[in-house]
Amino acid sequence: MAAINTSSNDPLYLAYRSVGQSADLIVPAVALNLVSLVGIVFNGTVLVVTVKSSSLRGSANFLMALICLCELVHQIGNNFFLVVVISGTNFVSLLTAGLFLTPSIFAINCGLMAMLCSAVDRLLSVISPLKHMDILLQFKYVYLFSYLLICIIYGAYSLNYVLANAFENAGNPTTGRLSEPFRGPVGHKFFAGTIIISLCCTCCYVSIFVLIRRKNYVCQQTNTRLLRSLIIILSINIGGYLFNLTIYQFLQAFGHMFGSPIRILQFSNIACILLNAAAGSNAIVLYLNSTEYRRLFKKELKMCLERFHSKNDQRNI
């Protein structure tokens, strides 16, 4: 762990390095973590029903679970910001933040690639449904492991350049927010990668829509459901990352227009909250658009309520 460079001229560091616990920092951290907590529960629920249900063993289910797992780990990383500001230290070195946030940094990038893998998988299933099914029947684990390996490689690659930057600028003060290791040139690289992945996902889903529209045996109802799903996926999951990154790029260029550095942090925190709301929306999207997931969610909720009532009854005896 590296010590903070006390000679840093970072405006936020100069303003809050010696004030101890401050509502200016604690309130944004608490708000962010409350949203993250909801997302952790929702994404965890998707993982639970996927593991427990034998009906969710398809490639789409696997990749959806992988996305939820990555988002869950991503959102757990927001706790570090809360711990730092509640402790009253308010700042840690960039290297310390980078090392503590390593799982979340890896998960963010792994999750982005999982979104692309999911789009590619859906495209393949539409281009050649029988061939796709045949591959799953004969080489299911090899097929799924290939996607997992691609996600791991991309996550490791991205983590490498983020941590390399953290080591080069080890003493820079940070509040422990997950966005801070992505500052500067590293942020531009991450932004470019996210744009490319988002464009590829968009191309895949647009291609899916066009292909299905051309297939005469697909009914209009299916087209409507697909279009609705496309809008949800692009606007919430992928759009959340793009919106967040765009805000950060804007603040880096024009942040001085917002006055004090704490106002910049609070404004950027709104973007973080929206991103985490998007990251936690997977369960809601699945509940609204999938009969099978909806049935399993209700079943799991019913079981939890029965256990809760059973424990209460035992205590009252």
UniProtKB/TrEMBL annotation:
Main localization (coarse): membrane
GO cellular component labels: membrane
Highest taxon listed in the record's lineage: Eukaryota
Record has Ribosomal protein as a keyword: no
Localization terms from the record: Membrane
Keywords from the named record: Membrane, Transmembrane, Transmembrane helix
Transmembrane segments: 25-50, 62-86, 92-120, 141-163, 190-213, 225-247, 267-288
Record-linked InterPro entries: 7TM_GPCR_Srsx, 7TM_GPCR_Srsx_nematod, GPCR_Rhodpsn
Protein name (Swiss-Prot/TrEMBL): G-protein coupled receptors family 1 profile domain-containing protein
Organism: Heterodera schachtii
